[in-house]
Amino acid sequence: MTRWAWVIDQTRCIGCHACTTACKSENDVPVGVFRTWVKNVEVGAFPDVKRHFAVLRCNHCAEPPCVDVCPVTAMYQRPDGLVDFDHNACIGCKACMQACPYDAIYMDPDSNTAAKCNFCSHRVDEGLLPSCVVVCPEEALLFGDLEDPTSKVSRALEENRVAVRRAEQGTRPHAFYIGAHDATLDPLAARHDATYMWSERGANDERMSVPLARKPLPLAPPPKPARVAYDVPRQRAWGWPVSSYIWTKGVAAGLGLLAAAGAYFNLGAATVRVVAPIIALVFLGITGGLLVGDLKRPERFWTILVRPQWKSWLARGAFIITAYGAALTVWLVLTVFARGQGLTALAPVLVVLAALTAGYTAPLLGQCEARDLWQTPLLLPHLIAHALVAGVAVVIIASGAATTPAMRSAFVIVLLVTGTLSLVDAIKRHKTANATAAAHALIRGAQSRFFWLALGFGVALPAVLALAGGPSLLIIAATLSLGGLWLHGHAFILAGQGPPIS
Question: Boundaries of CATH 3.30.70.20 in the chain?
Answer without folding.
Answer: 4-230
